[in-house]
Amino acid sequence: MLALGIEGTAHTVGVGIVDGSCRVLANVYGMIKPEKGGIHPREAANHHAEAVVPLLQKALDVAGIGPDAVDIIAFSQGPGLGPCLRTVATAARALALTLRVPIVGVNHCVAHLEIGRGTTECEDPALLYVSGGNTQVIAFSRGRYRVFGETLDIGIGNMLDKFAREAGHGFPGGPVLERAAKESSTLLPLPYSVKGMDVAFSGLLTAAVNRMKKGERFEDLAFSIQETAFAMLCEVTERAMAHLENDEVLLGGGVARNRRLQEMVSRMATDRGARMFVPPGELCIDNGAMIAWTGLLMHRAGVRMSIEDTVVNQRFRTDEVDVVWR
Ligand code: AMP
Ligand code: MG
Questions:
Q1: Is 254 near ligand 1, meaning CB less than 6 Å away?
Q2: In percent, how much of the chain has pLDDT > 70?
């Protein structure tokens, strides 16, 4: 069975094709990079509308198949930016109706977790999902993926991007900060804000920007932001793992590519006799393959959707999904 998945919750539009054993036959994407400022939902949606058809063709070419070989179409149903979600949902509906194959809407956050289970050796991990807009600790419990902790304000990637932007760097800012942080070992005090199982980043961002305006070195701030924010993430992830008696931790989302974060989470895991898993970078960021794979799992477990069921949901919660495939 082959599934084709279309991702398009935010800045990235991606098309992936996977088979029934989670072999990724194609995984291609395009990303809108705003010249300045943040991502404008309408502009991102226009970008996706222009990019999606060429990407579909490219994915089929890479996989070496024709459209008739596709058995189901999956798409990212939420959470995300409304205009972007509606654009990819429209593309998915048109494709499914044309090819006369089933369509299935997928929760983006759940897909980050499932692609990790599909492509690494982990079986029942706690997922630390760290992306631009999302920051959550997710684990399976009593039939659902439940959110054990999350950001109370902005996503960690957003925080890194905003700080880099204030310092005059382009999007994405995460990799810029990672490189700069390697040039420093000066830990400046920044707000460490963990509230129970949750984290908050806006205070840290404001404090770091203020320190920069007072002339503090960019490298020292990059280092300090990473050490502080990643330590917060490690703390809540560890608490969730202790609570669930979980001995696997999986990373997902674009920020999971950060080597320092990987190092810190891995250290935390090893210290408690657990293991860390990180999917290949192309499957950490927003991608169509994870949508295809999760759609395939859902379809195989009997999930069926009519076109009416494919309405997008900007605030689609992780724990709204009935995980019938596990
Ligand atoms: P996503 O929303 O999952 O596609 O991930 C995009 C986010 O990942 C952006 O906020 C990037 O700044 C961030 N990101 C990408 N690579 C890195 C990295 N090496 N370190 C930190 N953040 C990163
Ligand atoms: Mg994501």
A1: yes
A2: 99
DSSP state of 99: H
* Ligand 1 proximity of 290 Cβ (cutoff 6 Å): no
Q: Give pLDDT, residue 42.
A: 94
Residue 175 in contact with ligand 1 by CB distance below 6 A: yes
Residue 146: is it exposed, middle or buried by C-beta count within 10 angstroms (0-12/13-18/19+)? middle
- For 121, the token pair is 């050796």
Of 143, 164, 171, nearest to 36 by C-alpha is 171
The tokens describing 252, both together, are 């997902």
For the chain, count helices (H), then strands (E).
10, 12
Q: Which of 63, 85, 66 is nearest to 10 (CA)?
A: 85
Residue 37 confidence class, pLDDT cut points 50, 70, 90: low
Say if residues 236 and 149 touch (Cβ distance below 8 Å): yes
Report CA Rg, the chain.
19
Identify the pLDDT of residue 147.
Answer: 96
Closest C-alpha to 173, from 254, 270, 265? 254
Closest C-alpha to ligand 1, atom 10: 157
**CA angle (260 as vertex; 258, 266 as ends), nearest 5:** 100
Distance of CA 97 to the CA centre of its chain: 28
Ligand 1: which of 255, 260, 262 to mutate, judged by most atoms within 8 Å of the beta carbon? 255
For residue 284, how far is its CA from the centre of ligand 1 (angstroms)?
Answer: 9
